Amino acid sequence: MMLDKERVILFLGITLYILTYFGICFLKYRSYSYHDFDLAHHAQTLSNMLQGSIETSILGIPFLGNHTHWILFLILPFYALWPSPLLLLFLQTLTLGLGAWPLYKIGKKWIHSSTGLIFAFAFLMYPALGYLNLFEFHPTSFALFFLLWTFWFFCNENLKLYSLFLGLSCLTQENLYFAAITLGLYGWRCHRSWKWIIPPLCLGIMGFMISLFWMIPHFNQGKVGFETLYSHLGSNWMDIFHNLFFKPGVFIHFMVQERNIHLLSQLLMPLCFLPLLSPVLLLALPFFLQHFLSSRSTEHTIYYHYTAEIIPFLFVAALDGMRKVFAFQIIKKKEIPILLFLGLWAFIVGCVTGPLLPTLFRTSDLKKDEIDEVRDALIQEVGNGSESVMATFDFLSHLSNHQNLYSFHHLYSGVYTLSHKNYEIPQGFQYLLMDSMDPLTFSVFDSPQATRRLRHFLESGTWKVKDVDENIVLFAKDDVDSFRLFQTFPDLSPKTEIGLRNSTQHLGALDLQKCSTGIFLCMPALPPSGTLSSGQSGSSSCVSVHAPISVLGLSIDQVLSLQSNSFPVLFDGKLECKKACILSPQVSEGGRIQLSFFWQAKAAIEKDYYLSVGLFNPTGKLIRQVFHPLCYRIYPTFDWKENERVIEYFSFVLPKWLSMGRYSLRFYLVDRSSGERAKIKFSRIRNRVRKGEVVLGNVSI
User: Do the beta carbons of residue 483 and residue 583 sit within 8 Å?
Assistant: First the structure.
């Protein structure tokens, strides 16, 4: 009866884990909170496999050229029934949670059923497991489940099932062949027959060599080079392995770095360092070497998926260490208090350092907001899967049913992922969906050269702005319905200004040669001048707009006439905001506030400025704040020339829950690299600065 109760508790814990973590994964997916491309390219791989292709356009290669994820062929029948990235997130959560089952069985066999239950609980609370579960999707997560069953069948001396699950482990990724090698050596140490030693060794050595030196190079054609992660140790794989055996001093230097010691403490502390008491931990040595020696910083933390191959060895080693501790009778007598302490310790460490509690306390981050609804609408504009699309990371998983889907970061960086090979821009894709605040693209892959590369790409093509909301822009090839993002023009002499003011010429009609960045982004048929009326001097809104399109431009004479109002603001003594206008002072609930900013570079600008726009209620409480890279990362401020003028248009999305009333808008500039606000200097009116922010005006909802 006791056994039945423990099993009920075990599977209740597993069920709770699966429901909780898949619920979080579902909310993350729904709110566009997956900010890398791992989930997307695996989902696209499966979608294309259903069409008879192993190509993955996101990577630019067949999927076997990235990793030998043979396990995807076994997932394919399930994906045919539910062709959605959510299936992958569910399967990943399911197998990770069920990993507690074989661990419980090993603990019960080696020590006691209560020990197995405590370690199963510690497993479900293990911080690295939670981070693995919540970071995208990776086939290596299945290796954790398969390896734990492999250990169980090794303990039970069930050779057939041991071989089956070891083989399944190797199907998840090419580095799992190392597990076959070390388990073959472990079979020799445990004095097993040759069937437990020779086949795993042969599988591991041959599988790894074939994958690394033939399969992957054959399919990726030099577009992906994982050896670049170890270029500090050798120029190619053979050189790296040669130095590993004949120059150990170099490797030891990298192994004992502070970040690796910190990673070890993160892995061992939740288990009270028990794995250090067992030789089983040595079976994970190839995986420790792989990650400790890598130049990729993410491999030196528990916050990504790189611990998937290590966790099974850690927990089996911890159980073996616990078995050794309980071998001392004086300690064995205190088994229950020790196990209770281990369970409490696992709970505390899991809560303090794991992802679960912070995520549950910040559920607002996972709620679908007004910008997510904008993303939904833009994806609907792109189409149902037949269109060819390039997009930033946050959109990729939602577009993974498109056979021709490309990742924007390749275009932006100019090279393939983990490669020095120039990215070959695909021909004929129809849409470019860009979130100019995408967190990964515009941090890891950002550079002055990248923004210029993007600008050159847009200028040299026939791209038009099909739709835009806040920082998200949908470009379409040869589209007729384009909107205005920004306009640049050189410093105009007083004579030229007067001539333009007296004409009816629009900015969009200016000679292309006079615009320093070109005006390819802004050629809509602008409304007649009668639909735009200048506001009175000093009014909170400069322009009333009655045309029903997302973003409107002003004629040059209208913009210049607004300069006479007492508004100019100088930021950091170099960038002047000559005029900031609310184009739509009256907005319906859930609508958009259209804004226009007129900038002039008074001197060369070295900083990359972001605009912050805040919406405040009548009591001064901040309702919503939006950060916006000036000119949508296409023409950042560090590229602006002295005396160059820029007119930019921006739409601020209102929350649907916002009640009717009168609200105010304020703005300021922030230096992107330092996070410091730009210093404000008003030329005329000082009372328009409130708490370090420039008062833009009022809107009525």
Answer: no
